[in-house]
Design brief:
Oligomer: single chain
Shape: globular
Distance between the termini: 45 Å
Helix content: over 70%
Radius of gyration: 25 Å
Number of strands: 0
Order of helices and strands: HHHHHHHHHHH
Length: 365
């Protein structure tokens, strides 16, 4: 018995390893596709709402896509506009902060001399010159990177559009890959996973908005510059659990330290910690925990594993992946799908493409 289970586990592990390897190798395609699935999970309820109000389906999809582009483009424009407007002040204040820091090194508890500071800076510059090949290589690869980003954006838009337009056929094709007896289980598990993914996206946007509003208002009342870029970065960073909140919060504290001194930086740190505590102990357990039904320890481990395997994209998709997988496994293990039987499957009924109310659908034959 132990030998039989051992080779089965080895086969499963090998399949998982090959799958992870293929995902990493095809990341330039997989990542835009996964982002498109998240966006589609957000837009499907909006499209359904418009269709229920007798909008043509094509018009509802166009309006939903344009709404996403307008919102994302507007946030980025506001952030870039404020950074550009305060660019000169930013450079001057950075120089002032550097000079103050250098003065503190000589007059503070470290008691460094000017020659020691100069020698340290010279060593830093020499190291940068010796490693300049890295920067040259990075500059030469910049065009390739921008091309990858543009390709990823276009692929995300096209994938989202086709999921909204033809999601029924896509899911129908996926389910029919499986053996006939397994199709009811796959279909039901997919429906449960899709519902969980939709709940996750809606709740994550709510949590990210609260984080951005709280830290943004704190920065505004403390008189910090670049309030809009801070809020936008906090909003985007909140989609990466644990890691995103720490990084964006540290950025807000750093800006407060450079512009307003250590007292305001300490207060800003308190605001960031307060917002993160509210998120971690109130929003995540009460809202996110109810929506995705994943234990906080599983969230931390999933984010750590995702970061180790795929960096930032891995951390971004770790929680929804674990949440969807958890719901799908529970559905299959519950055996509810057996009531449908292997001969009752005639195509997916309630997943990506839902745009018609249940009451007016044609009954299944």
């Amino acid at each position: 018995m132990a030998g039989a289970w051992s080779w089965r586990m080895l086969v499963i592990g090998a399949v998982i390893a090959v799958f992870i390897f293929l995902v990493i190798q095809l990341r330039l395609i997989i990542i835009p596709l996964l982002i498109a699935v998240l966006i589609a999970a957000l837009l499907v309820p909006f499209v359904e709402l418009l269709v229920r109000h007798r909008w043509p389906r094509w018009l509802a999809i166009v309006v939903a896509m344009l709404a996403v582009l307008v919102v994302v483009g507007g946030l980025l424009y506001l952030a870039i506009w404020q950074v550009t407007r305060e660019g000169s002040a930013l450079s001057k204040q950075s120089v002032t902060a550097f000079n103050d820091f250098r003065s503190w090194l000589t007059t503070g508890p470290l008691g460094l001399s000017e020659s020691q500071i100069t020698d340290g800076l010279n060593q830093l510059f020499k190291s940068l010159q010796q490693d300049s090949q890295i920067f040259i290589t990075g500059a030469l690869s910049l065009g390739s990177t921008l091309g990858h980003v543009l390709t990823g954006v276009l692929l995300t838009l096209f994938s989202t559009l086709f999921i909204l337009i033809d999601g029924r056929s896509i899911w129908n094709w996926i389910v029919r890959i499986f053996p006939k007896r397994a199709r009811p289980a796959v279909d039901g598990a997919g429906q449960a996973g899709w519902t969980t993914l939709r709940n996750f996206v809606k709740v994550q946007i709510l949590v990210a908005s609260i984080d951005a509003l709280g830290i943004g208002l704190g920065a505004f009342f403390l008189g910090l510059p670049l309030v809009i870029p801070i809020a936008v970065l906090v909003f985007l960073g909140s989609f990466i659990p644990v890691v995103g909140a720490v990084v964006t919060g540290a950025l807000a504290v750093f800006i407060a330290l450079v512009y307003n001194g250590w007292v305001i930086a300490v207060i800003m740190l308190g605001v960031v910690l307060l917002v993160q505590q509210i998120e971690g102990h109130v929003l995540q357990p009460l809202i996110m925990g109810t929506a995705v039904k994943v234990h906080p320890l599983a969230v931390v481990l999933a984010v750590a594993a995702g970061s180790l395997l795929a960096g930032i994209p891995g951390a971004l998709f770790a929680v929804p992946f674990v949440a969807v997988l958890n719901v799908m496994v529970h559905y299959v293990s519950s055996g509810v799908w057996r009531n449908r039987g292997p001969g009752t499957y005639d195509g997916p009924q309630t997943v990506i493409w839902q745009t018609v109310p249940q009451a007016v659908r044609r009954p299944r034959s």
